[in-house]
Write a structure and sequence with these properties.
Layout: H1 2-5, E1 10-19, E2 48-55, E3 62-68, H2 77-88, E4 108-112, H3 121-132, E5 135-139, H4 151-161, H5 170-187, H6 193-198
Parallel strand pairs: 1-4, 4-5
Antiparallel strand pairs: 1-2, 2-3
Helix pairs in contact: 2-3
Length: 199
């Protein structure tokens, strides 16, 4: 982490998050004696899956993500690898298409959990080319979400940012998710953000 703070390497925390069309309701307000009715939408075919990567340290703090509905297809190995090399590592081409001897300007370390996709055969096969280009994947131990700094972002998204608790379409939920994450990304560039985070 010190190396990332000193901008000797790029450190990203990567994770995926799934959102149902009706989100958990922690609490609500109503007039005394009035029964609260929270709309419910069945999740079948209307979930939104998000893959995101957070670089919380240094001058180049950033949050990048990709949201997908069922119509967009699953967050599988090809989607993961494309997101990793293009949006996170910023490589000029897919790892297997890089010129011989190509390396990033500085190393990139990506911290991620033990979700099945990053352990897939396709991702494992791409690891040598990624490492040769200066991109290293670091897997946290099982059941250790506290070691992945993007996890609190997902909680903030689900429980605080999305004020509407039930969405009729996957597209409406996806638009709300993208808008909320755009706001989170903008806050990373706000010099007063660390003051709020420290409070």
């Amino acid at each position: 982490m010190a190396a990332a703070g000193a901008e000797e390497l790029d450190l990203y925390y990567l994770d995926q998050c799934g959102l149902a069309p009706t989100l958990p309701t922690g609490y609500t307000w109503a007039r005394a004696g009035v029964r609260v009715v929270v709309p419910y939408e069945a999740p079948q075919g209307r979930r939104v899956n998000v893959i995101g990567a957070l670089a919380p340290l240094g001058a180049q703090r950033r949050l990048v993500w990709l949201s997908r509905t069922k119509a967009d297809g699953p967050l599988d190995s090809p989607v993961f690898l494309d997101f990793l090399w293009r949006d996170v590592a910023g490589l000029p081409a897919a790892p297997e298409d890089l010129p011989s001897g190509y390396q990033r300007g500085r190393p990139c370390v990506v911290v991620l959990d033990n979700y099945s996709v990053p352990h897939s055969k396709a991702v494992q096969a791409a690891l040598p080319a990624l490492e040769a280009a200066g991109v290293t994947l670091f897997y946290v131990p099982p059941y250790s979400p506290e070691l992945n700094a993007i996890e609190p972002r997902w909680r903030h998204l689900k429980y605080e940012q999305l004020q509407v608790r039930s969405y009729r379409t996957a597209e409406a939920l996806q638009a709300a998710v993208d808008e909320a994450l755009t706001k989170q990304a903008a806050l990373l560039h706000d010099p007063t953000t660390p003051l709020f985070e420290a409070a």
